[in-house]
Amino acid sequence: MARRQTSGVPDAVREAVERTVQATVGSAQEAVDELARNAETTRGRAQGAVEDILRSAEAGAETVRGVVRSTIEERRPATSEDLKALATELRAITRRLDAIEERLPTRTRAAAKPASRKKKAAPAKKAAPAKRAAPAKRGRSGGSATRRKQKG
Q: What are the Cα distances from residue 146, in Å, to 7, 116, 152?
């Protein structure tokens, strides 16, 4: 009978060890599953953060591109198309001004027209230089050579 008790003890120990191993394996599996869920959550958060940073960087880059474009646009010289558009606009303004002047009363229009025509006239003549006093006559020439130099 002693053998049976001895053999019964190892069976009981074996069963206890198996239950402990099963419980440990189950706990370990739960721990691994929990770690996997946490890792997935962390990876999802990290991916979301990276995407947010990327969107912010793209928005900032687009803002910078817009500022650079507008700065370049402001600083570039006028093209022939720009000048043609300005000339067309100036002609339209001139036509509108002429129409307004035509609607003015006669007395006001008469005063307004010469002023606008003066602007279109040739530039004013230069003022004549101040006359100098004639120098005293010298020598036999009688001063005619001196006068020619002053006139020229």
A: 155, 46, 10
Q: Are 117 and 123 in contact (CB under 8 A)?
A: no
The pTM for the full model equals 0.33
CA distance 146 to 137: 9
The string of pLDDT tens digits covering residues 33-47 is 888 888 888 888 888
Q: For residues 48 and 44, give the distance between their C-alpha atoms in angstroms, rounded to a whole number.
A: 6
Cα 139 from Cα 145, distance rounded (Å): 11
The H-assigned helical ranges of 76-143 are: 80-103, 106-120
* Nearest in space to 151 (alpha carbons), one of 125, 136, 132, 138: 132
104, 112 contact by CB (below 8 A): yes
Return the domain boundaries, the chain: 1-76, 79-118
